[in-house]
Amino acid sequence: MRRLARKAYCVGSDLGRRLPLLLALVLVPLTCVPAASQLLRQSAPDFVLRSVAGENVRLSEHLGEVIIINFWASWCGPCRQEMPLLDELYGRYQRAGLTLLSVNLDDDKERAIEMAKTLAVSYPVLLDDRKEVSRSYHVGSMPSTVLIDREGVIRYVSEGFKPGYERRYIEQLRELLNQ
Fold first, then answer.
1. In the chain, how long is the greatest CA-to-CA distance?
2. Which burial class, exposed, middle or buried, applies to 100 when counting CB atoms under 10 A from its CB (0-12, 13-18, 19+)?
3. Does domain 34-177 have CATH number 3.40.30.10?
4. CA–CA separation, 151 and 149 (whole Å)
5. How high is the pLDDT of residue 5?
6. Along the chain (179 residues), what's the average pLDDT of each consecutive run of 10 residues?
7. Can you name the residues that pair with 57 across neighbouring β-strands?
């Protein structure tokens, strides 16, 4: 599971300059950084993002559907493993009311577009170049996957990916799609 970098760069190479930053990072209580799992049973934050196809996609327009939001980046190996499996789930459950929105966090949108093309995903790939949506969902690990019920409530959060996690998604999806 890879953690997102917070773009805090130290100038210079001596430890004296870096030590205060390192101490601050170590001494900050973990409760200060909310985990994505704290969003469980809460309304999913609404957003609008542009897709790689050029259209705007608004989460709230999919109210009444079961939604998977998958946060990923091109540099993330587990993301590359998970995306084809998500595409398979999307193909299997789309007719039952599943929507899958893929949110890319790369600074370079061309990398996102290339990876989506290479993996031939059929679901929308959205660009979160300002990282506002990922912050509102407290994304701290890549990939992060959020399942939202038909009423817009977050029901499941998965951080990271290992083979076999897709079985958890299927279990959760079947429950949500049957409600």
1. 59
2. buried
3. yes
4. 5
5. 42
6. 40 44 40 64 97 96 97 96 96 97 96 94 96 95 96 96 93 94
7. 49
Write the CA distances from 98 to 64, 85, 91, 150, 169, integer angstroms: 10, 15, 9, 9, 12
The H-assigned helical ranges of 94-121 are 109-119
Report pTM: 0.80
Domain ranges of the chain: 34-177
What are the strands of the beta sheet with 48-51, ordered from one edge? 56-58, 48-51, 125-127, 98-104, 66-72, 144-148, 154-159
Both structure tokens of 54: 């050029």
The count of C-alpha atoms lying within 13 angstroms of the C-alpha of 104, restricted to the half-sphere facing its C-beta, is 25
Cα 131 to Cα 174: distance, rounded to the nearest angstrom: 30
